[in-house]
Design brief:
Layout lengths: L2 E6 L2 H7 L4 H8 L2 E6 L14 E4 L7 H18 L4 H9 L7 H13 L5 H15 L3 H13 L3 E4 L8 H9 L3 E5 L5 H4 L9 E4 L2 H10 L8 E3 L17 H7 L7 E6 L9 H13 L6 E6 L10 H6 L4 E3 L3 E3 L11 E3 L1 H13 L2 E4 L4 H6 L5 E4 L18 H9 L3 E3 L2 H13 L5 H11 L7 H12 L1
Helix pairs in contact: 2-19, 3-4, 3-5, 3-6, 7-8
Length: 463
């Protein structure tokens, strides 16, 4: 008899592990499956067979907990900032000039971690962080919960949210095997420290496995497994398929024209999106790009209000506002409480399958479109000299360097390059197809078919 607890931390985790085939496969593989959810229990209605859902109380991070969590993150960034611009950039971004307790504490931590940034020091900061919440009522509640359910393995679907640290701490204390899935392609190469120490790790690719062993030298290779990612599994599941006529009808598109999809980031990472959309729209009006539909998919992580002026200015644009609902307000990471509908997964898949070209600012949507063999343009107009948000600096991030070196997409740094690339791909969509295939193999080293089953079986072996 083996029992698994699956920790769903956010809406993306809900999409990846509930709306893919993973949960179905976990129910087949394990004798008992329980979802421990950081989202409200009600959102799982209709998606479960034998699985039980337990809604976890929201852990609010106190200042004393934050300071030690911040210490280990800054120490990690400090330790790895040399020869890694993404980590160096995040190290500088996290500095603070604020004249409040967190601002003063951050400056103190930067001074402290200039000296104490070894793995041994990071482990010490971690123990200090745990000491601050071990007697917290919510942590005590987690202990009672895990005692009551006697899990063989606890599977964390994301390795970074700070609010999972108390649950991971209790699992370690109770000697319950823990495993984490590395959430995204950039998390190891450019982000801060994981929320906790886990026993096992699931990774997307050989590349991600090498990154994990580099940034976390205490992790043993035999405690990692390359499984791909359920993020893309819905693209090979029949229940999310639609035909091309449905696609044209859904977005009110001219079927005689080719379709460009511009996919937005959120305002924090891609504030130049309005400029890029306006540039393409004007080029269409001026006849520099002919006979195309232009569909804009906004980010599910934010309200699309910032695009309303653009929508009013260019009424011929078509919009795909993601069907993600806000499950809870007042959470410390509000974006994490947005979760998708089945309709949204179907709509997004149709965009990927039937659009002829994607344009985005260096997001994972590049990989989504490449799964359907579609060409991609990564647009980055901003630099240090032109008063735009400097998105060209992301070209120096390790995971983006891999994209640039692969020659799998076209990087457009100005209006002329963008329009030329659009027309080139519309004329010859097979350009760089081999390079796109190679990049996908680098980033996702396992087939999409069977991803959920592969993950469930690996977890069963470790339980």
């Amino acid at each position: 008899m083996k029992k698994i607890g699956i920790v769903i931390t956010d809406g993306v985790g809900f999409r990846n592990f509930i709306l893919s085939d993973f949960l179905t496969e976990a129910e087949k593989t394990f004798d008992e499956v329980v979802v421990l959810s950081c989202l409200p229990e009600a959102i799982y209605s209709g998606f479960l067979n034998t699985t039980k859902v337990i809604e976890l109380p929201v852990f609010q991070e106190a200042f004393k907990t934050w300071i030690f969590r911040k210490a280990k993150e800054v120490a990690h960034l400090r330790r790895h900032r040399n020869n890694n611009f993404g980590i160096f950039d995040n190290y500088n971004f996290n500095k603070s000039k604020a004249k409040n307790p967190r601002g003063y504490a951050t400056r103190l931590l930067y001074a402290l971690t200039a000296i104490f940034n070894t793995e041994k020091s990071i482990s010490a900061f971690n123990r200090m962080q745990q000491a601050t919440f071990k007697n917290n009522p919510i942590t005590k509640g987690y202990e009672e919960l895990l005692k009551a359910h006697d899990f063989d393995i606890l599977f964390f679907t994301h390795q970074r949210p700070p609010f999972i640290a108390p649950l991971a701490y209790v699992a370690k204390k109770m000697k319950i095997t823990s495993c984490s899935f590395i959430f995204s392609w950039d998390n190891l190469a450019s982000k801060g420290r994981m929320a906790a120490d886990f026993d096992y790790f699931l990774v997307w690719s050989d590349l991600m496995q090498r990154e994990l062993l580099h940034f976390y030298p205490h992790v043993k290779k035999e405690n990692t497994a390359i499984v791909g990612t359920p993020q893309f599994e819905p693209y090979v599941l029949e229940r999310y398929a639609s035909d091309q006529s449905e696609f044209h009808s859904l977005f009110n598109l001219n079927p005689l024209k080719k379709t460009i999809c511009f996919s937005c980031g959120d305002i924090a990472t891609s504030p130049n999106d309005e400029l890029y959309i306006e540039t393409i729209a004007n080029a269409i009006l001026e006849g520099k790009i002919e006979d195309v539909n232009l569909v804009i998919r906004t980010s599910p992580a934010e309200d699309p209000a910032r695009f309303l002026p653009i929508a009013a200015k260019f009424p011929f644009l078509k919009w795909n506002y993601p069907k993600w609902e806000l499950a809870r307000i007042g959470h410390q990471e509000a974006w994490s409480q947005r979760f998708p509908s089945v309709d949204d997964v179907t709509e997004m898949r149709s965009l990927l399958e039937y659009s002829h070209l994607n344009i985005n600012m260096l997001s994972t949507m590049s990989l989504d479109f490449m799964q359907f063999e579609k060409p991609v343009i990564n647009v980055v107009f901003g630099n240090q000299d032109n008063n735009l948000y400097d998105d060209q600096r992301f070209l120096e991030y390790a995971h983006i360097i891999n994209v640039v070196k692969s020659n799998a997409s076209t990087i457009a740094k100005n209006k002329i390059e963008l329009i030329e690339a659009i027309n080139q791909y519309l004329k010859n969509p097979l350009l760089q197809q081999a390079q796109r295939t190679n990049l996908l193999q680098m980033q996702v080293s396992k087939p999409l078919h069977g991803t959920g089953k592969r993950i469930a079986e690996t977890l069963f072996q470790w339980a």
